[in-house]
Amino acid sequence: MKPAKRPKLTRIPPELACVSDYEHLAKDFVPHSVYEYIAGGGADDISLHSNRRAFDRIELFSRVLSDCTGGTTALSLLDEPFRHPVLLAPVAYQKLVHPDGERATAQAADALQAGFIASTMASVSLEAIAAELSGNKWFQLYVQDSREGTLSLLRRAEAAGYTALVVTVDAPINGLRNRAQRAGFALPQQVQAVNLGGLPQSSPPSLGAEHSIVFQGLMASAPTWADLVWLRRQTALPIIVKGILHPADAVRVADMGLAGVVVSNHGGRTLDGLPASISALPAVRAALGPDFLVLLDGGIRRGTDVFKALALGANAVLVGRPQVYALAVAGALGVAHMLRLLREELEVTMALTGCPTLAHITMDALYPSEAWTGLD
User: Fold this and answer.
1) Catalytic residue (choose from 32, 49, 211, 266)
2) Regarding beta strands 316-319 and 137-141, do their DSSP bridges make them parallel or antiparallel, or are they unpaired?
3) What is the Cα–Cα distance from 52 to 319, expressed in whole angstroms?
């Protein structure tokens, strides 16, 4: 892998005025193949771009002469207090863009009092990540080929002090990452999913010509609903299921007694042609009712996006690629700055729409539009 083009910034220049500025600048700080791996979606990037376009179609209603002097972005998720409704999503292999990887991202989250979700596929151990976090920390779990491997990760997460599991279920196999393929991306030897070291790994089955490499091969050990039932029996930690788009799947999660869902199309990186996460959100919220925990992932680039997600039914949002772009440009400083931008933009949006608290953010704050009406 070629070295980065520029050294990391040690101060934030004026031209870094919004979260998207980090994405544009990141191209100068990482090799081209790494940028394409991070920035790319699946196949033709249709779902990737839909995540942004759907947000842009949603318009806001301003309200005037509102008293917002007692305003706050504070909230509670799973009985845990959070300073604001922006959490860092689980993102793998962050040492691709910075030598400190997830450790630096966790430091930024701690400084900005942002919830952090550590990835199974992190390039830093889950214990080292936890050591950087004095606040909210959840662990994202990929169900492993063997239950012994899954249980090992679970017990380590419990011992490290993680307070919730976020089980990702929408990527049993990788999507078609054509941009990364064209750019010649390959994971460098020094960047590995260190949490999987030593875990038992199943060998791919030997297949004849009459068998499918997808159905009888790659999907042979893919998790099912039965694995969630089993996992629930293994831990007292609340379990949130990430990768839900269909209301029927959301209802099934709730009926199983699990704690929440993340409405997500995996950042457009799995099946191309899926709807934007924000487009799927209202129907999921309607199916689950007002009290079930619903988070949203995908396309968040502005505080106004956070506001729109909350108005359409999310309790909070996860931010994925922006944390990696900010890490690539300015390390922990960049991630902290990115989080501060989103928090302050959310506060400005709340003030100008007459919403002093998150509880005031409802569909009434959105201008009626075919972009979202009728979805609930």
Assistant:
1) 266
2) unpaired
3) 13
The token pair that represents 62 in the structure block: 């301003």
Whole-prediction pTM:
0.93
Which tens digit of pLDDT belongs to each residue from 29-88? 999 999 999 999 999 999 999 999 999 999 999 999 999 999 999 999 999 999 999 999
320 residue type, one letter: G
Instruction: Give one DSSP letter per residue of 68-103, joined into a string.
Output: -TT----EEETTEEESSSEEEPP-S-GGGT-TTTHH
Pair of tokens at residue 91: 């993102």
**Burial zone of 81 (CB within 10 Å; 0-12 exposed, 13-18 middle, 19+ buried):** exposed
Is-contact 314 89, C-beta < 8 A?
A: no
Active-site annotation holds for 337: no
How far apart, in Å, do the first and last CA atoms of the chain sit? Answer: 47
In DSSP notation, 200-245 reads --PPPPP--TTS-IIIIIITTT---HHHHHHHHHH-SS-EEEEEE-
State which H helix or E strand residue 152 sits in. Answer: helix 147-159
- Interatomic CA distance for residues 18 and 270, integer angstroms: 27
